[in-house]
């Protein structure tokens, strides 16, 4: 599963971090101790003495119950489904034949998860004959009374005829997976003119039991066969191989997909729609891309690195891609980012881009993430949702691995830094152990801890033990536990078996305990030694004092010397030999640590660090920390140097740092930014340059903005429109108006901003049409712009948009859209007092705790 990026953008209401946080290791050695709670006491709780008051940090979660792995009474063996669909009622009409066997103890009852069904019949199948069985059903679980006690050597089959009615289920979901009804009908009646008719499923965490009866737990495995009867015009996709496709006399067609290698029930999937199927291959296996027909010509541009990814990961892991085929399908209105169903990944339609859109960047990170899951999550599966990082942290780290291989270490480190900051942002209000045996809801596990923090922890582990040991251990983990479910101790023991080192200290502090180190570093020089003081400042009532292997680099006479040290105490001083005062002392010079790090450095040291940096993060750290001093000639000279760096990320960082420059080199700096905005080879840098130019007040860059309207990049075009929104010109207005029918999200967002500042009643209909068509991320901002826009038009004209915004604020399934609509209405409330009552009612009826908290802040 790929956590949708929009959530982090929309709900980033906490204060930003100033440090370039990163991290390493620590702990309490205890060989092969189980990584599970030993008692029912709340981890991290401290006693309050009569002399002290315990201050509880805002990020400490409430006490939650222990969530053990599901007890295995039966083992799933095989599931056969025969399904057809009622598009009008949005029902699935199914027959499920489930083969099971008792796990160990004899069983007289089989309990299956089956949510929201109408059960027609339940029968035992023996030798081709059927026998009715008694059952009880409470709309959640189907309890079947067997005809006798079955022991563990006796598999048996139960056949269930049923109707699945997903839309009659109570609405649930989380930030990562916004709905949990399992089966989704998109535009089922064909009434939405700009949206295709589709059916697709989303099983994680335990939502596949909304469309077929099963034991819906991650520690089960089954082979499967799914027969789908659909209208002739539709394509189908499921796990495994298409073993038959039969035309029926009623004009329908039945496609049968069979997967022989067993996998967890949550990984089963179906997709039905008018897809174009673009075929590729890898080592003779079918690789298919299912896209909307208008994107068929772009499918290989979107997904074309898939065979190379399969080859890279197969070789890196020493385990070849283990499944029969690999397909990727793009669907509308998807409830998450993407999902790694075995052999058949589902992607949200954000990945569906034209070649022009791909100029500004692709979604290879998402594609790599889901491919890596085919090993970590599908081939070896977490035994419980408490151990979800065994799936998601490894998939998250695959994004770094692929980027490093394909685009170089600087690009990978830039990605890693972004992931670090996503975790640190979340950590301001929430700190949990990676492996959480306590949670309120299994959906809580899908957060920036399980994803980004876990990925960064694995990066530290790789750095600590070395590449050879890291990938050898992953190979051992995969080969030892293939086609089984696992917990974190088994990952730890794989690394211990390979390295020969007890790594309990590492896994304890990074996987089993919450938080991260907050480090302050200072240094002094005397008598041929650098005294390096390292202080861990985190609250150790609830977080550990970390053991941190780290590299410190000293530079003397332009020669670097690396010192390997291990921080083990809350306050510790290290003596490092140096023949003279170093030009630079650089703590964590490899930029590995997941930490909030404050390092005392002078301007001269930071300038030296930039010019002698050995990695992207050291360079950009210097740029970031010196941006407040750009008026200094030496600093502005460094920034100009950075605008010519070979890596686009450094150039973009420098352009961003030069916003609002007011120093003595004003003319030269503006000319450099003009050059960057017009001629840099990377569109992302050109866009950043344009944005930086808008911060120079009383300067006319209208010609440059207008020229940028001809750029091939949507990012640059959008930046130009946003620039012109602040400084509109008559010459550019007509060209901007000509873009009103463009559906690209970047252009829609830029036009929304432009019209909010410069529009007239003539643009009202444009906003109304975008409310029907735009994606959730675009709507979040567009609805706020609409609130500002309506202040520009007569009050009597606003009613239609206000009604639509109110409906969206109350009922839209995406929380970010509800928030955008609420904010847009709030903008109007000062001008339309009756809206204050409406907003109060929306707040009182909102059930999503995330939004309730934000609404309270916005009052």
Blueprint of the fold:
Blueprint: H1 6-10, E1 74-86, E2 91-102, E3 107-113, E4 117-126, E5 129-132, E6 135-137, E7 141-150, E8 156-164, E9 183-186, E10 198-201, E11 222-231, E12 235-238, E13 241-247, E14 252-263, E15 270-273, E16 276-282, E17 285-291, H2 299-303, H3 306-317, E18 326-331, E19 338-339, E20 344-348, H4 355-358, H5 364-373, E21 380-382, H6 389-407, H7 409-427, H8 449-465, H9 467-481, E22 484-486, H10 488-499, H11 504-512, E23 518-526, E24 529-536, E25 548-556, E26 559-567, E27 571-577, E28 584-587, E29 596-599, H12 603-612, H13 616-626, H14 633-642, H15 648-657, H16 666-679, H17 683-693, H18 702-708, H19 714-726, H20 730-737, H21 745-758, H22 764-773, H23 776-790, H24 799-811, H25 815-829, H26 835-845, H27 849-858
Parallel strand pairs: 1-11, 17-18, 18-20, 21-22, 23-29
Antiparallel strand pairs: 1-2, 2-8, 3-7, 4-5, 4-8, 6-7, 9-10, 10-15, 11-14, 12-15, 13-14, 16-17, 19-20, 23-24, 24-27, 25-26, 25-28
Helix pairs in contact: 3-5, 5-6, 6-7, 6-8, 7-8, 8-9, 9-10, 12-13, 13-15, 15-17, 16-17, 17-19, 18-19, 19-21, 21-23, 22-23, 23-25, 24-25, 25-26
